[in-house]
Amino acid sequence: MVPSRKRMRPLALALAALLVPAATHVCGAVPPSGCTPIDYLPPMYSGIQFGAAIEGIFIDFNGQGNGCADCHTSAMHTQIPAGNLDLDPNESPSPYVNLINVVSAEDPSLIYVVPNYPERSLLFQKVNCDTPGVGVRMPYQGYPDGMTTLTPYQQALIYDWIAEGAPADTTNGIFRGTFDLRGFISDEIFGGGFEH
Q1: Are 90 and 100 in contact (CB under 8 A)?
Q2: 111 - beta bridge partners?
Q3: What is the C-alpha to C-alpha distance for residues 100 and 108, in angstroms, rounded to an integer?
Q4: From the CB of residue 105, how many other CB atoms can be counted at a distance below 10 Å?
Q5: CA distances (Å), 77 to each of 11, 74, 82, 96, 190, in order?
Q6: Where are the domains of the chain?
């Protein structure tokens, strides 16, 4: 017995309602471009401490007391942080809680940090690429002097921390293969995009 068209229509609509958000999640972001190469830096899979290394960048990325938390702070809940992302370690919840598996306020199809997947993590895209999945490279407009970017070493540190699972404590480097590609790979290899 062939099902009637009237019974099939609600099923098709329900299926479409499920598939449209999934397609948006995959296609919602633009592929990053203008990314800083970090593949020449030796990987650091063990000993990256979130509190010292990653939060250290949030507090002071240039050795002069300027950090991501200068803009990405709620100033003890008196203002909305830039991009609605609070990276100030003196506030609650902590930057770690605000980053890990948290949907971006700028584009709900993107996640700030996807443990084990730096290329899918908006945090890495934002510090590594002139044109990340959404918005612009951070620090915004080269804060504080109009020319500042994180060093390739700092970018690689964030990449390696995320690649190691983005732990709240210290990375342990249990296993990483030597064949891993680091950073975003040129269009010649992936034909104009990256897998999301």
Answers
A1: no
A2: 103, 121
A3: 14
A4: 14
A5: 46, 5, 13, 17, 43
A6: 32-176
- For position 63, what pLDDT does the model report? 92
Q: Are 157 and 57 in contact (CB under 8 A)?
A: yes
Is beta strand 33-35 parallel, antiparallel or unpaired with respect to 46-49? Answer: unpaired
Phi, psi (rounded to 5 degrees) for 95: -55, -35
Q: For residue range 100-142, what is the model confidence (pLDDT) as tens digits?
A: 999 999 999 999 999 999 999 999 999 999 999 899 999 999 9
> What is the pTM (predicted TM-score) of this model?
0.76
C-alpha span between 161 and 171 (Å, rounded): 7
* Token pair recorded at residue 127: 């510090």
* DSSP letters for 55-118: HHHHH-SSSSS--GGGTS--TTTTSPPGGG----TTSSS-HHHHHBTPBPSS-TT-BSB-TT-G
Answer for the pair 194, 185: CB distance below 8 angstroms, yes or no. Answer: yes
What secondary structure letter does DSSP report for 135? S
pLDDT tens per residue, range 48-101: 999 999 999 999 999 999 999 999 999 999 999 999 999 999 999 999 999 999
| Distance, first Cα to last Cα, the chain | 41
pLDDT of residue 4: 44
For 195, list phi and psi in degrees, rounded to 5: -80, 130
